[in-house]
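Narrative summary of target 7.
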Amino acid sequence: MAKVIMIQGTMSGVGKSFITAGLCRIMRQDGYRVAPFKSQNMALNSYITEEGLEMGRAQVMQAEAAGIKPMVCMNPILLKPTDNVGSQVIVNGEVIGNMSATDYFKYKIGLIPVIKEAFRRLEDYADIIVIEGAGSPAEINLRENDIVNMGMADMVDAPVLLIGDIDRGGVFAQLLGTLLLIGEEEKARVKGLIINKFRGDKTLLDPGILMLEKMGNVSVTGVVPYMELSLEDEDSITGRFDKKEEGMIDIVVIRYPRISNFTDFNVFEQIKEVSVRYVVSVSDIHHPDMIILPGSKNTMADLAWMRKNGIEEAIKELAGEIPIWGICGGYQMLGGRIYDPDSVEAGGSMNGMGLLPVATVLRKEKVRRQTKGRLQNMGGIFSDLSGLEYEGYEIHMGLTDVGNEKPVNKNVYGTYIHGIFDKGEIAATVVQSLARKKGIMSGRTKAGFVCEDYRSFKEKQYDKLADTLRKYLNMGEIYGMLREAHME
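Modeled conformation, tokenized:
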């Protein structure tokens, strides 16, 4: 059986996903077959495996760090929020339906056999499994029938590393408060503490660490500095949404309430001349070089939100001047009409933005598949994209009829393909075309906008993450914490 270790945190956003990925990378470098696992993930950023199954992108990122292909058994339960009180529930990569938070709280205990079976499947492959928790184990209202934090640790007899985020302040209270609230049996599982996102001179922190270890009776396994990494973070607490600076080439992504798979645009962040800004109001749009309507978990509601706050009208006005891209739900919004006969979302139908001559019918059956090919017959300013190879995947609950009409505006583009920009040549060509239209090429060639293949770029980021963790974590202690997993 695989040896296991679990990463838990004092709250969301403390760095659990990155630390898990970093440990996966280190252990892979050290010659082990290592795999990530998260029993339950709540996220709107998801991925489709080779088998056509859906899982959270955080575990995909960790699998990449481990040097293995993503498998749905790494994330057997995925919750995709549809509104403020409910989520689409996905088990073993398949949609089983929408549930309110109250109904799911009662239902989840029945998923323990699913979790155990997924973990066993992963044990057949891995020497070491690095498990990620969710939120905090000290959320006392959720401790009953817990399946993702200490409940998960108990299922597989996992030692726990507890992470606190010093960048938010109050890290000693975070860690000590968590140890106080989780109870003695659960506290006994915590074998080390990690202080994450530290800035400054560590010696100034040493007195606090000594007091923390004395009061908590758990050693500090490492103090990890704040890292500038470009990797896929959790969608609910990403810092990408806060970026306001406008670059030489400015790309605006509309951040509607149920935005999904915004990882599609991370590739553009590699190009130093490019800014990617996520906006929620007309006043924040300014005059970008391109606008993207990303994926959405609730297409009709997010379109209504844009219609109400004026963003839709602003996009229509700019469509004659700058290119507009719609990805997945954003593509559906750009069409003439959206129908929901099966009440997949709100039911009924509504007008789209009318920028593309297409119509969409939402269906209960979700389309899930990987795809690749060549871009063909690209018009408008992106004609240079024609013939370039792409790879990506589709996740959508709707079928779009393209019809025979030609678009009135040649610079409005729509696709269901997530990851369509990830090939470095595609992203660089998009930026080159925008620069040419803006008149700032000044003799520059496409090579002037450096954008390597996104997969190659991420490999370097994983190595950088591993190098940092090796330096600041006591890996000897961590390897010593590993123990055999004993499933009940």
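Confidence is low (pLDDT under 50) at residues 442-447.
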